[in-house]
UniProtKB/TrEMBL annotation:
<keyword id="KW-0812">Transmembrane</keyword>
<protein>
    <recommendedName>
        <fullName>Nicotinamide riboside transporter PnuC</fullName>
    </recommendedName>
</protein>
<keyword id="KW-1003">Cell membrane</keyword>
<feature type="transmembrane region" description="Helical">
    <location>
        <begin position="42"/>
        <end position="62"/>
    </location>
</feature>
<feature type="transmembrane region" description="Helical">
    <location>
        <begin position="105"/>
        <end position="125"/>
    </location>
</feature>
<feature type="transmembrane region" description="Helical">
    <location>
        <begin position="20"/>
        <end position="37"/>
    </location>
</feature>
<dbReference type="GO" id="GO:0005886">
    <property type="term" value="C:plasma membrane"/>
</dbReference>
<dbReference type="GO" id="GO:0034257">
    <property type="term" value="F:nicotinamide riboside transmembrane transporter activity"/>
</dbReference>
<comment type="function">
    <text>Required for nicotinamide riboside transport across the inner membrane.</text>
</comment>
<keyword id="KW-0472">Membrane</keyword>
<feature type="transmembrane region" description="Helical">
    <location>
        <begin position="158"/>
        <end position="174"/>
    </location>
</feature>
<feature type="transmembrane region" description="Helical">
    <location>
        <begin position="180"/>
        <end position="198"/>
    </location>
</feature>
<dbReference type="InterPro" id="IPR006419">
    <property type="entry name" value="NMN_transpt_PnuC"/>
</dbReference>
<comment type="similarity">
    <text>Belongs to the nicotinamide ribonucleoside (NR) uptake permease (TC 4.B.1) family.</text>
</comment>
<dbReference type="Pfam" id="PF04973">
    <property type="entry name" value="NMN_transporter"/>
</dbReference>
<keyword id="KW-0813">Transport</keyword>
<keyword id="KW-1133">Transmembrane helix</keyword>
Length: 208
């Protein structure tokens, strides 16, 4: 048990109090954001922006290029999604739905382009130094595609998050960001619940 505790706390031995507070705050707002997303509540975006804004700083400081890129994209897509979900014209309001062929083409295109871009950045800065970098490239691509589907209120966004969270949780523990690792375990649970809720929401709309 002590070994597990040491594994979790050791990376924070040289961290400042401010760094720890920032990571905890970012993780808490991240969980809040996913809770709102699960309910289809527009507050997913402002809470998400707070979380990703802090993570932009954290990942820049520790040098995680993929994660840094992800959080810039998350922030931009949160603004985009906020605008889409804020449409006040009832007939034009975005509704939860299944992805169509064009949505999958866009998602696959975003996924592949994102991975190619992040690989290019890693090579340019000569940063392929650890096995976690390769998983970082994969999760960046998955996250970009999933975030786009979420902004469009597509049910399948949750499947992308489930895969992303399964990979990311142990990855963040390995990177020494334990609080963030715990956040992604919570994200995984919420993503499974979110998928079930959004599936039901689509079914109800069809019946209506």
């Amino acid at each position: 048990m002590q070994e597990i505790i040491d594994f979790f706390l050791q990376p924070y031995a040289e961290a400042t109090t401010l760094d720890i507070i920032l990571e905890i705050t970012a993780a808490l707002f991240g969980v809040l954001s996913v809770l709102f997303a699960k309910r289809g509540n527009i507050l997913v975006f402002p809470t998400g922006i707070i979380s990703t804004g802090i993570y932009i700083y954290i990942t820049y400081v520790v040098g995680y290029i993929g994660d840094f890129t992800i959080n810039i994209y998350y922030t931009a897509m949160s603004v985009y999604g906020w605008i889409l979900w804020s449409n006040i014209a009832q007939e034009d309001q975005l509704k939860i739905s299944w992805s169509e062929t064009k949505d999958w083409l866009w998602t696959i295109g975003i996924f592949l382009f994102t991975m190619a871009f992040v690989i290019g950045v890693y090579i340019y800065f000569d940063k392929f130094e650890d096995w976690t970098n390769y998983f970082d490239v994969l999760t960046t691509g998955l996250a970009f595609g999933s975030m786009w589907l979420m902004a469009k209120k597509k049910v399948e966004n949750w499947l992308g998050w489930i895969i992303t969270n399964i990979i990311s949780a142990p990855l963040y523990f390995a990177k020494g960001l334990g609080f963030t690792g715990i956040q992604f375990i919570i994200f995984l649970i919420l993503a499974v619940q979110g998928y079930q809720l959004w599936k039901k929401a689509v079914g109800k709309s069809k019946v209506a």
